[in-house]
Amino acid sequence: MNKISWSLLWVLLVPQAWAVPDGPIADAKPVVAVAPEGAMAARLAYNVGYEDFEKAQATEVAAAKLTGAPAKAAQAQALQSYATARKQFEAATKADASLKEAWNLVGYTSRRLGEYDKSLVAYEQALALNPTYSEAIEYRAEAYLALNRLDDAKAAYLTLLANARPHAAVLLQSMQQWLVERRKQPAGVAAADLDAFARWVDERAAVASQTASLAPGFVAVRRWD
Predict the structure, then answer these.
(1) Which residues contact 192 (CB under 8 A, 6 or more apart)?
(2) What pTM was estimated for this model as a whole?
(3) 193 burial type by CB count under 10 A (0-12 exposed, 13-18 middle, 19+ buried)
């Protein structure tokens, strides 16, 4: 039985705790009802895409431990898996345009593929469905960093700090790593702007460390990518 057939059987027979879209959200905009077959097609495409998404992430972790040609080969493989995953997430959005998780991961995979304009469009679609979708806000801010849109990234951090502190912590660490990378390769960012942003990040980090005990939940810290 091929991959899609197995995935369909799994979706139909086993309640899944992973890669399954969230239920209705109170502050989401009203959407047109989706036919049952459309909802099933969207869920199937999303879950199949998520398999490739996880494969891409695992390959990236492995690539970070390699050097030279093996590292380049692993990185290329990861990008291919992201591209394959994106096709499935895009199929999910076509089957059910109200699936914010699929839009969010179209944004994520596009960002990892270096297609930032497409990434931002997808994040906007996810946030149009749920303006408080903190994961999409954080991921979009990562795209802002890649594009050197520092004011937008700062605004996203303040939004997350007020409403989703674990995601704010992830973004703050991404900002710190962005500074490390831009110190090595400015990529068009002026030294004065880097210094100003560094001061802002340091101030936010100091406040975060003082209020860490007040922040609910826990989030794994990861590097900026």
Answers:
(1) none
(2) 0.79
(3) middle
